[in-house]
Amino acid sequence: MPPRSFRSAVLLVGLGLFLAGCGPMSAQNPAGAYSPANAVAEDGEAHLLLRGADVVAYFTETAHRPGRPEFSSRHEGVTLRFASAEHKALFDQAPERYLPRFGGYCANGIAYGIPWGGDADTWKIIDGQLYIFGGQASKDAFELDEAGNLALAERYWREEVAGGNSFVQRAWRLVWRVPHYKTGAELAEAIARARGEGGS
Question: Measured on CA atoms in the order 160, 166, 170, 172, is the torsion positive or negative?
Fold first, then answer.
């Protein structure tokens, strides 16, 4: 790694940690095995996954539903909320069935090695597993090559992201981009072409 690039990366990481503060860094990097995670410190919870979205509702109601504090469970360092006692019971019986892949981060971001984003209201169940996306554009980009992007996301999650620090990994891959990296504009153009909306 060139010395100048290394210094730039260290400065970027330092700046990112300074701007982000300790709260978000701590919230996204819980002590349990489900880490890093798309979690926030909110309402007295240190690691509230997906801002309290009910992960069971995606499967039972095919809908995004906010959970309620009175129906909460803790699993592998994160707190989950549910819309009902029944959903909490279903989760408690088989948590791995309902947990979103990649810690609830945007699956399209993980395909680039970047644990970032993840809007609970933009999601998809693929082969019985829940995937969260950072908005409709991210989901559309992922679906351009769903199988290929799933394979990339699984690889980067396994080899780089899982068990690491989300902020350090994010800074690393924003500086040293993966070989297949595409900008937002390039992805938007590819989506438009796939839809027959023109573009070069």
Answer: negative
